[in-house]
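Same chain as my last thread, 242 residues:
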Amino acid sequence: TPAYVAKYLAENSIGRLWVNSKPHSSFIDKLGRYVICQNPDGMATVDSPEEIRVLDPACGTGNLLTAAFDLLYEIYLDANYRPDVIPELILSKNLFGYDIDARAVDAAKAILIAKAHQKQSHFFRRGIEPQIRAFTEDDHPDAGLYGSLIRELDETKYHVILANPPYMGSKHFSKAMSAWAKKHYPDSSRDLCSMFIERGLEMVVPGGMIAMITMESWMFLTSFERLRRRIIEDQTIITLAH
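reply #2:
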Protein backbone atom coordinates (compact mmCIF):
# COMPACT_ATOMS: atom_id res chain seq x y z
CA THR A 1 0.00 0.00 0.00
CA PRO A 2 1.60 3.34 -0.99
CA ALA A 3 2.53 5.53 1.97
CA TYR A 4 0.21 8.38 0.98
CA VAL A 5 -2.75 5.98 0.76
CA ALA A 6 -1.91 4.47 4.15
CA LYS A 7 -1.78 7.97 5.66
CA TYR A 8 -5.08 8.91 4.04
CA LEU A 9 -6.76 5.84 5.49
CA ALA A 10 -5.25 6.25 8.96
CA GLU A 11 -5.87 9.99 9.27
CA ASN A 12 -9.49 9.75 8.15
CA SER A 13 -10.29 6.93 10.58
CA ILE A 14 -7.99 6.94 13.63
CA GLY A 15 -7.31 10.64 13.26
CA ARG A 16 -11.00 11.38 12.78
CA LEU A 17 -11.85 9.38 15.89
CA TRP A 18 -9.45 11.50 17.95
CA VAL A 19 -10.60 14.79 16.41
CA ASN A 20 -14.20 13.83 17.15
CA SER A 21 -13.26 12.91 20.71
CA LYS A 22 -11.26 16.11 21.34
CA PRO A 23 -12.98 18.78 19.23
CA HIS A 24 -11.15 21.64 20.96
CA SER A 25 -7.70 20.21 20.24
CA SER A 26 -5.57 21.62 17.43
CA PHE A 27 -4.60 18.07 16.41
CA ILE A 28 -6.46 18.41 13.11
CA ASP A 29 -3.71 20.80 11.95
CA LYS A 30 -1.24 17.89 11.95
CA LEU A 31 -3.32 15.82 9.54
CA GLY A 32 -2.21 16.60 6.01
CA ARG A 33 -4.56 14.11 4.31
CA TYR A 34 -7.60 14.64 6.51
CA VAL A 35 -10.83 15.39 4.62
CA ILE A 36 -12.63 18.19 6.46
CA CYS A 37 -16.35 17.48 6.55
CA GLN A 38 -19.18 17.13 9.04
CA ASN A 39 -18.77 14.00 11.15
CA PRO A 40 -22.04 12.05 11.37
CA ASP A 41 -24.05 11.91 14.56
CA GLY A 42 -23.28 8.89 16.71
CA MET A 43 -19.62 8.58 15.76
CA ALA A 44 -17.61 6.82 18.46
CA THR A 45 -15.48 8.79 20.90
CA VAL A 46 -12.78 7.89 23.42
CA ASP A 47 -11.52 9.57 26.57
CA SER A 48 -7.94 8.37 26.24
CA PRO A 49 -5.64 7.11 23.45
CA GLU A 50 -5.27 3.89 25.41
CA GLU A 51 -8.89 3.01 24.59
CA ILE A 52 -8.40 3.02 20.82
CA ARG A 53 -8.40 -0.44 19.21
CA VAL A 54 -7.31 -0.70 15.58
CA LEU A 55 -7.46 -3.96 13.62
CA ASP A 56 -6.06 -4.94 10.25
CA PRO A 57 -7.86 -8.25 9.58
CA ALA A 58 -5.51 -9.18 6.71
CA CYS A 59 -2.37 -7.34 7.74
CA GLY A 60 0.31 -8.88 5.54
CA THR A 61 3.65 -7.34 6.51
CA GLY A 62 1.98 -4.56 8.49
CA ASN A 63 2.16 -1.60 6.12
CA LEU A 64 -1.10 -0.08 7.36
CA LEU A 65 -0.31 -0.88 10.99
CA THR A 66 2.96 1.02 10.58
CA ALA A 67 1.05 4.10 9.40
CA ALA A 68 -1.32 3.64 12.34
CA PHE A 69 1.64 3.45 14.74
CA ASP A 70 2.98 6.81 13.54
CA LEU A 71 -0.41 8.50 13.89
CA LEU A 72 -1.13 6.97 17.30
CA TYR A 73 2.27 8.20 18.52
CA GLU A 74 1.22 11.76 17.64
CA ILE A 75 -2.16 11.23 19.32
CA TYR A 76 -0.46 10.17 22.56
CA LEU A 77 1.75 13.26 22.40
CA ASP A 78 -1.36 15.39 21.90
CA ALA A 79 -2.76 13.77 25.06
CA ASN A 80 0.43 14.78 26.96
CA TYR A 81 1.90 11.30 27.42
CA ARG A 82 5.64 10.96 28.00
CA PRO A 83 7.38 9.89 24.77
CA ASP A 84 9.25 7.05 26.49
CA VAL A 85 6.05 5.19 27.45
CA ILE A 86 4.18 5.58 24.17
CA PRO A 87 5.65 2.73 22.04
CA GLU A 88 4.80 0.09 24.62
CA LEU A 89 1.27 1.42 24.98
CA ILE A 90 0.66 1.39 21.23
CA LEU A 91 1.76 -2.22 20.81
CA SER A 92 0.06 -3.51 23.95
CA LYS A 93 -3.23 -1.60 23.75
CA ASN A 94 -3.92 -0.15 20.29
CA LEU A 95 -2.75 -2.26 17.36
CA PHE A 96 -4.06 -5.69 16.36
CA GLY A 97 -3.54 -7.74 13.23
CA TYR A 98 -4.34 -11.11 11.70
CA ASP A 99 -3.23 -12.95 8.60
CA ILE A 100 -3.07 -16.49 7.22
CA ASP A 101 0.61 -16.12 6.24
CA ALA A 102 2.88 -16.79 9.23
CA ARG A 103 5.94 -15.39 7.46
CA ALA A 104 4.16 -12.13 6.71
CA VAL A 105 3.08 -11.90 10.36
CA ASP A 106 6.67 -12.41 11.52
CA ALA A 107 7.76 -9.59 9.22
CA ALA A 108 5.01 -7.30 10.50
CA LYS A 109 6.02 -7.95 14.10
CA ALA A 110 9.68 -7.24 13.32
CA ILE A 111 8.82 -3.99 11.52
CA LEU A 112 6.65 -2.73 14.38
CA ILE A 113 9.25 -3.67 17.00
CA ALA A 114 11.88 -1.84 14.96
CA LYS A 115 9.63 1.22 14.78
CA ALA A 116 9.04 1.08 18.52
CA HIS A 117 12.78 0.75 19.08
CA GLN A 118 13.33 3.75 16.81
CA LYS A 119 11.07 5.81 19.06
CA GLN A 120 12.38 4.40 22.35
CA SER A 121 15.88 2.94 22.45
CA HIS A 122 15.24 0.74 25.52
CA PHE A 123 12.14 -0.85 24.06
CA PHE A 124 13.64 -4.28 23.35
CA ARG A 125 14.34 -4.85 27.05
CA ARG A 126 10.64 -4.64 27.85
CA GLY A 127 9.75 -7.73 25.82
CA ILE A 128 6.42 -6.43 24.53
CA GLU A 129 5.21 -8.38 21.48
CA PRO A 130 2.95 -6.78 18.87
CA GLN A 131 -0.57 -8.22 19.01
CA ILE A 132 -0.41 -9.74 15.55
CA ARG A 133 -0.91 -13.40 14.82
CA ALA A 134 -1.35 -15.93 12.05
CA PHE A 135 -4.42 -18.15 12.14
CA THR A 136 -3.74 -21.88 11.90
CA GLU A 137 -5.76 -25.09 11.82
CA ASP A 138 -5.42 -25.19 15.60
CA ASP A 139 -7.74 -22.16 15.70
CA HIS A 140 -10.26 -23.57 13.23
CA PRO A 141 -10.14 -26.26 10.51
CA ASP A 142 -10.68 -23.58 7.82
CA ALA A 143 -8.58 -20.84 9.41
CA GLY A 144 -5.75 -21.22 6.92
CA LEU A 145 -8.13 -20.44 4.07
CA TYR A 146 -10.53 -17.83 5.41
CA GLY A 147 -8.74 -16.25 8.37
CA SER A 148 -10.61 -13.27 9.82
CA LEU A 149 -13.70 -14.05 7.74
CA ILE A 150 -14.47 -16.86 10.20
CA ARG A 151 -16.64 -15.04 12.70
CA GLU A 152 -15.97 -17.21 15.75
CA LEU A 153 -12.22 -16.53 15.60
CA ASP A 154 -12.62 -13.00 16.91
CA GLU A 155 -15.66 -11.48 18.57
CA THR A 156 -13.84 -8.35 19.80
CA LYS A 157 -15.15 -4.97 18.68
CA TYR A 158 -12.70 -2.39 17.34
CA HIS A 159 -12.91 1.37 16.92
CA VAL A 160 -11.24 1.21 13.50
CA ILE A 161 -10.87 -1.53 10.89
CA LEU A 162 -7.90 -0.54 8.73
CA ALA A 163 -7.35 -2.82 5.76
CA ASN A 164 -6.19 -3.55 2.25
CA PRO A 165 -7.81 -6.99 2.06
CA PRO A 166 -7.22 -9.64 -0.60
CA TYR A 167 -9.19 -9.39 -3.82
CA MET A 168 -10.44 -12.47 -5.66
CA GLY A 169 -13.58 -12.74 -7.76
CA SER A 170 -15.82 -15.73 -7.17
CA LYS A 171 -15.04 -17.14 -10.63
CA HIS A 172 -11.62 -18.03 -9.23
CA PHE A 173 -13.03 -19.73 -6.10
CA SER A 174 -12.87 -23.48 -5.71
CA LYS A 175 -16.22 -25.24 -5.39
CA ALA A 176 -15.73 -25.59 -1.65
CA MET A 177 -14.80 -21.93 -1.27
CA SER A 178 -17.78 -20.81 -3.36
CA ALA A 179 -20.16 -22.86 -1.21
CA TRP A 180 -18.60 -21.51 1.99
CA ALA A 181 -18.85 -17.90 0.79
CA LYS A 182 -22.50 -18.22 -0.25
CA LYS A 183 -23.38 -19.80 3.08
CA HIS A 184 -21.60 -17.33 5.34
CA TYR A 185 -21.61 -14.13 3.23
CA PRO A 186 -24.62 -14.31 0.89
CA ASP A 187 -24.71 -10.53 0.37
CA SER A 188 -21.04 -10.22 -0.59
CA SER A 189 -19.92 -13.64 -1.81
CA ARG A 190 -18.86 -12.49 -5.27
CA ASP A 191 -15.44 -11.29 -4.09
CA LEU A 192 -13.14 -11.79 -1.11
CA CYS A 193 -12.78 -8.02 -0.86
CA SER A 194 -16.52 -7.43 -0.47
CA MET A 195 -16.69 -10.21 2.10
CA PHE A 196 -14.11 -8.30 4.15
CA ILE A 197 -16.30 -5.18 3.87
CA GLU A 198 -19.21 -7.10 5.35
CA ARG A 199 -17.01 -8.63 8.02
CA GLY A 200 -15.62 -5.20 8.88
CA LEU A 201 -19.13 -3.86 9.46
CA GLU A 202 -19.59 -6.57 12.09
CA MET A 203 -16.29 -5.94 13.87
CA VAL A 204 -16.55 -2.24 14.71
CA VAL A 205 -17.97 -0.71 17.87
CA PRO A 206 -21.19 1.33 17.45
CA GLY A 207 -20.09 4.47 15.62
CA GLY A 208 -16.74 2.94 14.70
CA MET A 209 -15.05 3.30 11.32
CA ILE A 210 -13.84 1.16 8.46
CA ALA A 211 -10.97 2.51 6.35
CA MET A 212 -10.43 0.07 3.53
CA ILE A 213 -9.02 -0.19 0.04
CA THR A 214 -11.56 -2.02 -2.10
CA MET A 215 -12.36 -2.96 -5.65
CA GLU A 216 -14.98 -0.60 -7.08
CA SER A 217 -17.33 -3.31 -8.40
CA TRP A 218 -19.38 -3.47 -5.18
CA MET A 219 -20.65 0.03 -5.97
CA PHE A 220 -22.47 -0.86 -9.19
CA LEU A 221 -22.76 -4.60 -9.97
CA THR A 222 -26.24 -6.07 -9.51
CA SER A 223 -24.81 -8.97 -7.51
CA PHE A 224 -23.79 -6.55 -4.72
CA GLU A 225 -27.16 -4.78 -4.46
CA ARG A 226 -27.98 -6.20 -1.03
CA LEU A 227 -24.57 -5.20 0.32
CA ARG A 228 -25.03 -1.67 -1.06
CA ARG A 229 -28.44 -1.41 0.57
CA ARG A 230 -26.95 -2.41 3.92
CA ILE A 231 -24.28 0.24 3.62
CA ILE A 232 -26.61 3.01 2.40
CA GLU A 233 -29.37 2.30 4.91
CA ASP A 234 -27.34 1.40 8.00
CA GLN A 235 -23.94 3.10 7.59
CA THR A 236 -22.49 6.47 6.59
CA ILE A 237 -19.85 6.98 3.91
CA ILE A 238 -17.75 9.88 5.20
CA THR A 239 -15.09 10.03 2.50
CA LEU A 240 -14.40 7.99 -0.59
CA ALA A 241 -11.61 8.36 -3.15
CA HIS A 242 -11.06 6.68 -6.50
